[in-house]
Amino acid sequence: MSLKLRITIDGSEVTASTGSTILEAADAAGIYIPRLCSHKELCAYGACRICTVLVNGRPQAACTTPAVDGMVVESDVESLHNHRRSLIEMLFSEGNHYCMFCERSGSCELQALGYRFGMIVPRHTYQFPDRDVDASHPDVMIDRNRCVLCARCVRASKQVDGTHAFQFVGRGKNRRIGVNAAAGLAGTRLKVEDKAAAICPVGAIIKKRTAFTEPVGRRLYDKKPIGSDIEAGASA
Ligand code: FES
Predict the structure, then answer these.
(1) What share of residues in the chain are helix, strand, coil (percent, to 5)?
(2) Which of 17, 44, 59, 190 would you call most buried, defined as having the most Cβ atoms within 10 angstroms of its Cβ?
(3) Which pairing describes strands 72-74 and 4-9: parallel, antiparallel, or unpaired?
(4) Which residues of the chain have a pLDDT value below 50?
(5) What is residue 235's predicted lDDT score, i.e. its pLDDT?
C-alpha cells in the first residue's frame, strides 16, 4: 500500500500517494490543472508547459513534478491563466489551425483550452507555415499543419504499441512529426487500432472515414468545458 502525503492546492489540503505527480494528486482531488501533452496512459513528457503551477512560489510543470509532503501549489491564479492563454495563442499562431474545417472541431483539446481560457484572437503573429499532409496509409492520415508537437503519438507508438511508427525530425521551427519509413505512414507498422492512431489531442492524426460523425451540439466539448470531468470528481 502506498504511503500518503499531504499537499495544498489553491488553499485546499489534499492527500496524495507517494510517487504521484502534482497533476495526478490534483486529478484525484477533483482539481483540474490544464494540460495538453500529458496523457494518463503515457509517461510524462513536460513539453507544452500549459500545466505550469507555482510550487512554493516557483513555476513548475505539474505533470512532471512529484508531489512532496507539505508542498504548497497554486494553479488558479491570474498570472498563470495569462501564461496558459499565451501558450495556447502561440500554438494557434504557430500552426495552421482552421477549426471550422477540422474534423476534430468540438473534440479538440487545443480548441477546448482556447474556449476555457477565453482566447479571442492570438496576440502573436501568424506564421502560416508550409507543412505537408501524409495520406498514404489506408486508414490513418497525418496533417502536420495541426500538429502541436505534444509527442503523444511518439510516446504511444513506442510505449504502448511497440511500433515506433512516429518520431520527431528536424530542429527548432523545422521540428515536425516524422515516421519510421521512407514510404511515409503507409510504410510503417501503424494499425488503425493502435493507441498512437487515437491519442492525438488535435486533428493532426486522424482516422479516415470517421470525420464529422458527431453533430454540432453533441461533440465532446460542446456542452461542458475541458476539465469538467475532473472537477466533477471523476478520475482523469
Ligand atoms: Fe505538463 Fe504539457 S501537460 S508540460
Answers:
(1) 25, 20, 55
(2) 190
(3) parallel
(4) 234-236
(5) 47
Residue 152 CB–ligand 1 contact under 6 Å? no
Q: Which three cell numbers stand for residue 74?
A: 497554486
Ligand 1 pocket, 197 CB below 6 A? no
Total Cβ atoms within 10 A of residue 165 = 26
Instruction: Identify the helix (H) or strand (E) that includes residue 207.
Output: strand 205-207
The closest-lying atom of ligand 1 relative to the alpha carbon of residue 47 is 4
Query: How far is Cα 184 from Cα 178, in angstroms, rounded to an integer?
Result: 8
Does any ligand 1 atom lie closer than 6 A to the CB of residue 33? no
Give Cβ neighbours of residue 108 (< 8 Å, ≥ 6 apart): 99, 102, 201, 202, 203, 221
First to last CA, the chain: 21
Helices (H) and strands (E) in the chain, counts: 5, 10
What is the Å distance from ligand 1's center to 33 Cα? Answer: 10
Residues 124, 162 contacting (CB under 8 angstroms): no
Q: Which of 88, 93, 202 is nearest to 144 (CA)?
A: 202
pLDDT score of 5: 94
C-alpha cell at 179: 515516421
Using the 8-state DSSP alphabet, how is residue 235 labeled? Answer: -
pLDDT tens digits for range 139-175: 999 999 999 999 999 999 999 999 999 999 999 989 9
Q: Which pLDDT score, from 0 to 100, does residue 236 have?
A: 43
Residues 6 or more apart in contact with residue 60 via CB below 8 angstroms: 22, 52, 53, 54
Q: Which of 184, 202, 200, 191 is nearest to 139 (CA)?
A: 191
